[in-house]
Task: inverse folding
C-alpha cells in the first residue's frame, strides 16, 4: 500500500532534506514538491495525494491558508513541518496528524509516519466498505425506507415506535420485524441492517432510524452503530475505556467510551426486566 505524498515548503533545502529522509520509507512516494501555496493547491487538484507535508510560514499563502481553500473531501492527510512551535495548537485544530519541528528528527518523523499509516489504512477500509455497499445495493436494488410508512404500535414513555420497518427493495417492499434486528451500522450514504443472518442495505440516516426505534431497546453504541440491547450476551472490556459487546449471533460490536455509561445502565435494566414467554 503506497502513500502518495507532496512536500510543500518555500525553502529548497528543507524540501530536499525531507525528501532524502522519506526515501527510507518504502511505502511513501513523493509525487511532487511545491515551493508555495499556489503550487500546492494545483498539485492537490491534479494529483489527489494521500499525504501533504506542509510548511506553515510561506510568502503569499500560509499553510493554514492552503487548508482553508481545499474542499474537505479533497483534503489529504496533513503533517505540518515548521521551524516554529507556537503554531502547534492551531495546527491540531486544523486536524493535522502531526506537527514536526525543523530540523526534522528521524525518530519523530517515523512516529508521524506510523500515525499516517494507521489513518491511511482506516481511510482505505472505509472507502472499500462504501464501495462494497454501493455495489451490493446496485445488485439487490437500492433499499429505501418508505417515508411515513413505519408501523408505530409499540409505546414507550408516551411515544409510539415502529414494530415493523418497511424497506423498499427495487419495486418490492419487505416488512422487517424490528425485534429481529441485531445491530445496524452506517456505511457512507447507506445503512446496513443486520437481522436473522441477513443484511439489508438501505438509504437512510442514523437519525431517521433512531427516531423510529425504541431507545430503551435500540441504542447507539458508537458514532456509526446502533445495537439491539436485547441481543447483547456479554460485555468485554478493551483499551482506553472502550468495550466490545458480544451479541447472541457471535458478532462483536465496539462500545465507545462516550456511550458506555448510558448503554450499561440500559443493559442492567434490560436484564432485570422479566422476559416474556
Result:
Amino acid at each position: 500500500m503506497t502513500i502518495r505524498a507532496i512536500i510543500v515548503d518555500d525553502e529548497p533545502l528543507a524540501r530536499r532534506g525531507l525528501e532524502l529522509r522519506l526515501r527510507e520509507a518504502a511505502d511513501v512516494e513523493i509525487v511532487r514538491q511545491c515551493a508555495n501555496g499556489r503550487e500546492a493547491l494545483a498539485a492537490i487538484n491534479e494529483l489527489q495525494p494521500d499525504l501533504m507535508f506542509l510548511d506553515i510560514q510561506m510568502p503569499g499563502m500560509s499553510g493554514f491558508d492552503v487548508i482553508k481553500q481545499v474542499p474537505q473531501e479533497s483534503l489529504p492527510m496533513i503533517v505540518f513541518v515548521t521551524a516554529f512551535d507556537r503554531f502547534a495548537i492551531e495546527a491540531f485544530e486544523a486536524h493535522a496528524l502531526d506537527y514536526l519541528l525543523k530540523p526534522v528528527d528521524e525518530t519523530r518523523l517515523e512516529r508521524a509516519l506510523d500515525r499516517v499509516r494507521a489513518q491511511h489504512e482506516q481511510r482505505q477500509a472505509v472507502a472499500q466498505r462504501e464501495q462494497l455497499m454501493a455495489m451490493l445495493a446496485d445488485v439487490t436494488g437500492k433499499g429505501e425506507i418508505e417515508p411515513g410508512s413505519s408501523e408505530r404500535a409499540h409505546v414507550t414513555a408516551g411515544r409510539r415506535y415502529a414494530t415493523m420497518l418497511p424497506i423498499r427493495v427495487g419495486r418490492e417492499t419487505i416488512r422487517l420485524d424490528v425485534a429481529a434486528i441485531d445491530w445496524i451500522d452506517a456505511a457512507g450514504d447507506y445503512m446496513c441492517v443486520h437481522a436473522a443472518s441477513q443484511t439489508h442495505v438501505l438509504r437512510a440516516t442514523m437519525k431517521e432510524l433512531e427516531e423510529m426505534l425504541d431507545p430503551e431497546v435500540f441504542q447507539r453504541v458508537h458514532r456509526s452503530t446502533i445495537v439491539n440491547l436485547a441481543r447483547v450476551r456479554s460485555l468485554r472490556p478493551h483499551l482506553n475505556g472502550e468495550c466490545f459487546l458480544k451479541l447472541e449471533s457471535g458478532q462483536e460490536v465496539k462500545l465507545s467510551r462516550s456511550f458506555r455509561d448510558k448503554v450499561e445502565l440500559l443493559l442492567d435494566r434490560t436484564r432485570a426486566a422479566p422476559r416474556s414467554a
